[in-house]
Design goal:
Helix content: 10-25%
Radius of gyration: 19 Å
Order of helices and strands: EHEEHEEEEEEEE
Distance between the termini: 59 Å
Largest sheet: 6 strands, antiparallel
Strand content: 25-35%
Structural class: alpha+beta
Length: 206
Amino acid sequence: MMLEETKFEKLFSTPILRFRLPEFEKLNEALLKEGAALRAQSEGVEKSNRGGWHSAGNLFENQAAPIKILRAMAQDCVLAGMKRIGAKADLNKLNMKLFAWMNANPSMGYNAPHTHPGAHWSGVYYVSQPEVEEGNSGMIEFLNPRTDLPNWRILDAPAFRTKKKFRPMPGDMILFPSYLVHWVYPNETDEQRVTVAFNATFRKAK
């Protein structure tokens, strides 16, 4: 007697989407210039950054051309994410708020484990990422939000790993649910690692 499989579901899966902007070099060069100007004007704020600079306020309110381009990219990224997960909400009846900031991590700068409470989606665009041949420098790591997973290690099942890390490259944009705990490994190079992070929050339109 053979058992017949009737259905397979990925229940409660956590999506992480990765995008890449073609011909990103000119945009990133312009973003680095804008970032340098912002750092000259402000010491920034302390959030999850450790030893690095975090811009103050909502970067996407800045009307500089490269930032406006990036804002449009972030919006497209979120809408693609909504479509990819099969969200059934009528987006015409929702307002999307985007809030962004720039991170600049010098040598040994990093971002401590954190979430982005209150938002729906979070994303990161990579402006500069120093090259390394080995090690964890510049990697972002996500922690599985489910409990009791250490018990599953013996089965070596990818779906039940306790964490996932990878090293995005300049021109990459990643998108993930804001409840997902994540952190960034220390920059082990002498070059700065620069990213623009953002949150997307939906509210019912009035």
